[in-house]
Automatic annotation (TrEMBL), chain A:
Name of this protein: ABC-2 type transport system ATP-binding protein
Record-linked Gene3D superfamilies: P-loop containing nucleotide triphosphate hydrolases (3.40.50.300)
PROSITE patterns reported for this sequence: ABC_TRANSPORTER_1, ABC_TRANSPORTER_2
One GO MF term: ATP hydrolysis activity
Family: Belongs to the ABC transporter superfamily.
Cytoplasm keyword on record: no
Keyword Cell wall biogenesis/degradation assigned: no
UniProtKB/TrEMBL annotation, chain B:
One annotated Gene Ontology cellular component of this protein: membrane
Cytoplasm in keyword set: no
Topology relative to the membrane: Multi-pass membrane protein
Principal place of residence: membrane
GO MF terms held by the record: ABC-type transporter activity
Protein name: ABC-2 type transport system permease protein
TM annotation in the entry: 25-46, 167-188, 217-243, 255-276, 296-314, 321-339, 345-363
Subcellular location field: Membrane
InterPro entries registered for this protein in UniProt: ABC2_TM (IPR013525)
Keywords of the record: Membrane, Transmembrane, Transmembrane helix
Highest taxon of source: Bacteria
Domain ABC-2 type transporter transmembrane per the UniProt entry, residue ranges: 29-360
Length: 309, 395
C-alpha cells in the first residue's frame, strides 16, 4: 500500500531581486520518509526550507501539509520540528530551561518537556550539564542541544538543515543512528546536508536542486539505477599520472586528479571491464588499481556539472 | 496551540528571563547605601555651613556694622599692615574676605565671588538702610507700613487639584519614565540580542511573529512594573517611617492614596508603557548591531517624550498642552498631568485613553510586521527606506 503523502510542494518559486532562488520546484514527502534535500551552496535549499517553515513567503506555488495532528487543535508549527542552518540558542541560560521553553512554544507541557529533555540529554551524554549555561558547553555539544530542541516535542515531521555540520566523524555516525531512531518512532524527516556518504546511509528519497531548479527527484535506489551504472577506477602511478593519455581512452567520461600521482577515472555507462583492462595494460608504472561503486557523491557532482554546462 | 497559550509562554519566559528578585534586592541595598551616605554627607555639609564663617574687617570700619556682622561672622579686625599682608597672601591662601570702609562706600577683597559675599552684601544693605533712616529721621514702623504688600482676596474656580494629586501625577509619570528606561535596556537584549544569537529563526518557525512580539512587549512591561512595584512599596514604607519619625499622623500618607485618581493614573501609565514598549520593540527589530547602529539613539526618545509632559504643569490650558494630552506618544503622562492642574472633562479622559489604547494596538502590529520582514537580516542594517519597501512588498 502506498504511503500517505504528508507534504506536497507544487511549483514553488521565490525571487530575490533578479535571481530565482527557487524556480518552480515540486516534490512530495510521504509518511515515514527520510527525504534528502541536496544541492551545492546557494542552490536554494535553505530558502525552500524557510518557505516550508513559513518564515518567508513564496512568490508562487503551493504547499500542503497533511499531518495526523492537524484538525485536533494543533497548529502545523506544533507538529513540526526544525533545526535551522543558522544555529542559535540562549547562551546565558541553563540548557534545560531553553529546551523546556522551545518545546513549550510548540505546545508541549512543561513536565513532559522536562522528562523528554532529560531522556535526550542522557542519550547524548549531557545529562550532568543540564543546569549549566549553554555558553559553558563546547560548540559540538551546543550543536547536540540544538538538535534536541528540534525533536524534543516529538514532531510528526522534522526538517534538519545541515544536521551533521560541526560534528566529528564519530558524532556524525551517532547522529545517523539518532535520525534513524526518530524516523523509526514515527517522525518523517527532511534533511539537507552536504555529506553524501552520510545521506546515503539514512535517506530513502532524494531531491537534487541546483540554481533553484530541480535536477533529480526520486528514490535513492532509482538514482543509482539511473545514474550509477558507471564504472569508477582509482589509479596510482610511480611517477606523474598520464592524464592526457588516459583521457584519450574512448570510454572515459571524467577524470579527477587526486594528486600528481593518483587519478580517479569515471567511465561511460555500460562500459565493460575487460576492454578497459586491456587498454590500461599499455600504461607503464601503474602501482595501484582499484574499482569502486559510483557513489551518491559522484552522481551529485556529475548531475550538478551537467546541469551547469 | 492557541494564541493565548503561546502568548503566556513567551510572556512568562521573557519575564523570568529578566526579572530577578535577587538582583532587584541588591539594587535596592546599593541605593540605600548611597542614600545613607548622601543623607549623612549632606547633613554634615549643612551643619558645617551653619558655622560662623570668618571675615576680616579694617580698623576704620564702623563699630555698629562690626556688631551687626558679628551675629553671623567670626570678625577679626586688622590694622593697616595686617591688611596689606592679608591682600598679598590671598592668591596663595585662596580663602577669606577683607572688608574696608570709606564713608558710605565699602570694598571687599576676596579670592573669588561666593555665596558668603552675597550674604555680606545683605548685612551691608541693612546697615546702610539703618543709617539712611536715621539721616531722614524715618521710624522703623513707617518703613514697614510703606513696604507692606497689597491685600488680595484670591477666588479660584478650579479647586479640584490638590498638592497630593499633583504629587501622585508626578509620581506616576516618574514611574513611566523609569519603566521605559528599564524596558529600553531589556528590549535590546530580548530582540536585538536574540537576533544576534540567531535564535529568532528557531522561534518564529514555531510561533507567529505577532505572538512573539506581543509576548516580548507584555513580558518586558511586566518586568518593568515588577521592579517599579518593589520601589513603590519601599517608597510608601519610607514615607510611613518618615512621617512616624517626624511625628506627622499616618493620614498624611493616606491623603495621597485617592483610589479613583490612582486607577486613572495607573490605567494611563500601563497602556503608556505598553505603547512605548511597542515603539522600542519596532526600533529594536531593525537594529542588527546595537554597538554600531545610529538607530540605537532613537531608543532614548520615549524618556524625552514622557519627560516633556512635565512642562504641562506650567500652562495646562494652552493649545499645545491640550494637543499633547490627546496625542498618544505624550498623552499617557500628559493627560494625568492636565487632569490634576486644570479642569478636564470625563469625555476628554475617555477619548485620550481610547486613542492611546488604539495606538498601542496598531503599533504592536506594526512592530511585528517590521520584525517579520527583517527577521533574517544579520548583515547590513536596513535603512528606514529599506524597511518601508519591505513592508510594502510584504503586503
Amino acid at each position: 500500500m502506498a504511503k500517505q503523502e504528508i507534504l506536497k510542494v507544487e511549483g514553488l518559486r521565490k525571487r530575490f531581486k533578479d535571481i530565482d532562488a527557487v524556480n518552480k520546484i515540486s516534490f512530495s514527502v510521504a509518511e515515514g520518509d527520510v527525504f534528502a534535500f541536496l544541492g551545492p551552496n546557494g542552490a536554494g535549499k535553505t530558502t525552500t526550507i524557510r518557505i516550508l517553515m513559513d518564515i518567508i513567503h513564496a512568490d508562487e506555488g503551493a504547499i500542503s501539509w497533511n499531518l495526523k495532528g492537524q484538525g485536533n487543535g494543533f497548529s502545523i508549527a506544533s507538529l513540526l520540528g526544525y533545526l535551522p542552518e543558522e544555529r542559535g540558542l540562549y547562551l546565558d541560560l541553563p540548557v534545560i530551561n531553553s529546551l523546556i521553553y522551545l518545546a513549550g512554544i510548540r505546545g508541549m507541557q512543561k513536565s513532559k518537556a522536562k522528562i523528554a529533555a532529560m531522556h535526550w540529554l542522557e542519550k547524548l551524554e549531557l545529562a550532568d550539564r543540564a543546569n549549566e549555561k549553554l555558553q559553558a558547553l563546547s560548540k559540538g555539544n551546543q550543536q547536540k542541544i540544538q538538535f534536541i530542541a528540534s525533536i524534543l516535542h516529538e514532531p510528526e515531521f522534522v526538517i534538519l538543515d545541515e544536521p551533521f555540520s560541526g560534528f566529528d566523524p564519530i558524532n556524525q555516525e551517532k547522529f545517523i543512528e539518532f535520525i534513524k531512531e526518530i524516523n523509526y518512532n514515527g517522525t518523517t524527516v527532511l534533511l539537507s546536508a552536504h555529506q553524501m556518504p552520510l545521506v546515503e546511509k539514512v535517506a530513502n528519497k532524494v531531491f537534487l536542486i541546483n540554481d533553484g531548479c530541480e535536477i533529480y527527484n526520486g528514490s535513492l535506489s532509482d538514482i543509482y539505477n539511473k545514474f550509477g551504472d558507471r564504472m569508477v577506477i582509482d589509479l596510482a602511478f610511480e611517477d606523474h599520472a598520464p592524464l592526457n593519455k588516459v583521457s584519450e581512452i574512448e570510454e572515459v567520461e571524467d577524470i579527477e586528479s587526486v594528486d600528481e600521482k593518483q587519478i580517479k577515472v569515471t567511465f561511460m555507462p555500460g562500459t565493460k571491464m575487460e576492454p578497459i583492462l586491456n587498454k590500461l595494460s599499455g600504461f607503464a608504472g601503474i602501482t595501484e588499481f582499484r574499482t569502486q561503486k559510483y557513489t551518491l557523491h559522484d552522481i551529485f557532482l556529475n548531475l550538478v556539472k551537467n546541469h551547469r554546462s | 496551540m492557541n494564541y493565548w497559550l503561546q502568548l503566556k509562554t513567551v510572556m512568562l519566559w521573557e519575564y523570568h528571563r529578566f526579572f530577578k528578585i535577587k538582583n532587584e534586592l541588591i539594587g535596592i541595598v546599593i541605593m540605600l547605601v548611597f542614600f545613607v551616605i548622601g543623607f549623612f554627607g549632606s547633613s554634615y555639609a549643612f551643619k558645617a555651613s551653619q558655622d560662623k564663617s570668618p571675615i576680616h574687617v579694617a580698623e576704620g570700619v564702623d563699630g555698629e556694622l562690626i556688631e551687626l556682622l558679628s551675629e553671623n561672622f567670626d570678625v577679626t579686625i586688622l590694622d593697616d599692615r595686617e591688611q596689606e599682608t592679608f591682600i598679598a597672601e590671598l592668591p596663595e591662601r585662596k580663602s577669606g574676605s577683607l572688608l574696608t570702609q570709606e564713608g558710605a562706600t565699602f570694598e571687599v577683597h576676596s579670592w573669588r565671588n561666593s555665596g558668603r559675599i552675597k550674604e555680606l552684601q545683605s548685612y551691608l544693605d541693612e546697615y546702610r538702610s539703618g543709617l539712611a533712616m536715621r539721616e531722614i529721621d524715618l521710624p522703623k514702623e513707617s518703613l514697614q507700613y510703606v513696604l507692606k504688600p497689597a491685600t488680595v482676596k484670591e477666588v479660584y474656580y478650579f479647586t479640584a487639584g490638590s498638592r497630593e494629586r499633583r504629587i501622585m501625577a508626578i509620581f506616576f509619570s516618574g514611574m513611566m519614565v523609569m519603566a521605559v528606561f528599564i524596558s529600553f535596556a531589556y528590549q535590546f537584549t530580548a530582540i536585538t540580542g536574540e537576533k544576534q544569537l540567531r535564535i529568532t529563526e528557531q522561534i518564529v518557525s514555531a510561533i507567529r511573529p505577532q505572538v512573539w512580539m506581543d509576548g516580548k512587549i507584555l513580558g518586558i512591561t511586566l518586568t518593568g512594573f515588577s521592579s517599579i512595584l518593589i520601589y513603590t512599596i519601599i517608597s510608601i514604607l519610607g514615607g510611613i517611617i518618615y512621617f512616624q519619625i517626624t511625628g506627622s499622623p499616618l493620614s498624611s500618607v493616606l491623603a495621597y492614596l485617592h483610589l479613583p485618581s490612582i486607577l486613572l493614573f495607573l490605567s494611563f501609565t500601563v497602556v503608556g508603557v505598553l505603547l512605548w514598549n511597542s515603539v522600542l520593540a519596532a526600533i529594536a527589530s531593525i537594529i542588527t548591531d546595537p554597538n554600531n547602529s545610529v538607530k540605537s539613539s532613537l531608543m532614548i526618545l520615549p524618556s524625552l517624550f514622557v519627560g516633556a509632559s512635565f512642562l504641562l504643569l506650567l500652562n495646562p490650558d494652552n493649545h499645545v498642552a491640550v494637543f499633547l494630552s490627546w496625542f498618544p506618544l505624550f498623552s499617557a503622562s500628559a493627560m494625568p498631568m492636565r487632569f490634576v492642574v486644570t479642569d478636564v472633562a470625563w469625555w476628554e479622559l475617555m477619548g485620550s485613553f481610547i486613542f492611546l489604547a488604539l495606538a498601542f494596538y496598531f503599533i504592536r502590529k506594526l512592530a511585528a510586521r517590521i520584525f517579520h520582514v527583517s527577521i533574517l537580516i544579520n548583515g547590513n542594517e536596513p535603512t528606514w527606506k529599506d524597511v518601508f519597501r519591505m513592508l510594502k512588498e510584504s503586503k
